[in-house]
Amino acid sequence: MIYFDSAATTLQKPASVSAAVADAISQMTTPGRGDHPAARAAAELMLRCRMEAAALFDVPQPENVILTANATHGLNIAIRTLVAPGDMVAISGYEHNAVTRPLHAIGNVSCRIVNGRLFDPAQMAEGFRKALDGGVKAVICTHTSNVFGYTLPIDDIAALCREKGVPLIVDASQSAGIHPVSMKRWGAAYIAMPGHKGLYGPQGTGLLLCGEGQTPAALMEGGTGSLSRQQEMPDFLPDRLEAGTQNVHGAAGLLEGIKFVRSRGLDAIRRREWDVVRCLAEGLKAKGGFRVFDAPAGESAVLSVLSLEMPPETLADRLAEQGVAVRAGLHCAPLAHRTAGTGETGTLRFSVSAFNTPEEAETVLAML
Description:
- The protein folds into 2 domains: 15-264, 3-Layer(aba) Sandwich (Aspartate Aminotransferase, domain 2); 265-367, Aspartate Aminotransferase, domain 1 (Alpha-Beta Complex).
- It has 12 helices and 13 strands.
- The two termini are 16 Å apart.
- 40% of the residues lie in helices and 15% in strands.
- The chain has helices at 15-27, 37-57, 71-82, 97-106, 121-131, 154-164, 183-186, 248-264, 266-287, 312-321, 334-340, 358-367; strands at residues 2-3, 65-68, 88-92, 110-114, 136-142, 168-171, 190-194, 206-210, 290-293, 302-307, 324-325, 327-329, 347-351.
- Helix 1 (15-27) runs antiparallel to helix 8 (248-264), helix 3 (71-82) packs parallel to helix 4 and helix 9 (266-287) packs parallel to helix 12 (358-367).
- By secondary structure, it is an alpha/beta fold.
């Protein structure tokens, strides 16, 4: 199979990831629930995972790295901490349902949606400047669109938020492990990301990076292995947000995935992925018959296209019959499609990882 659906989940992982998961299942229990070797080994592993993530994402304190079930879990914590009924927030026009649905569920939240042309970061930054003129309680913004691979100008947006004193939540689901993500540089309140995409960890893993001075709302209450006599959740991290038995074997795999990204280097990963995306984009434009939404050089591991002759779902099914995995439809981001004008059709999306090659792209072009 040629796997071009890594924006959903990376399938090819470093061999060390599955080996670490197997070792953790057979050798580790739950941190904080015993002083025996299996529990101590789990506690040490969780700390190493936090430390590796803190080093990659410029988080000053490893305890501010929260292990979550996925990016959606982290975004729900962040959004419900900073947004209340009656508040106004500013979001980009390229947000995923993981942002828009929690806002809808809170109720009576006004959203200033900052729209802008695809691949026009200056227009997007100016849009946020206007949106922050008054009354906005939080900014929630994707770093890279999961549909179009458009990397938004987060450095500029973060600077505007610091200038206006507005907390920033960043959805780094499509950028973590590909583009630099820096808590220190952005000064964000929260940054959420999955473990199973660009960090090459298992499904069921994610990270929520918490900024200094944040007291996040606990979505769950329960045992933490600490302060067991009191009924209130601990007010310190990570315990406040990690109630119940943790996904230790998932964290073991995620640790190895992060180590792989750090050892390979973001620049090398980005160049490798861009070589594949560029091959697909240039080949499709040369063939004709496709509308190609291609990002500027080096910006993305995602390529959305529309066939002028065949619906995206039909084309995806035809490719699947030939052993090629892609995704078609709205990609859980109808707002992004409305912004870009593809809301009626959705798109066919190719998304690559560090394990794909230009030769695979050539093979798929020949099939098309």
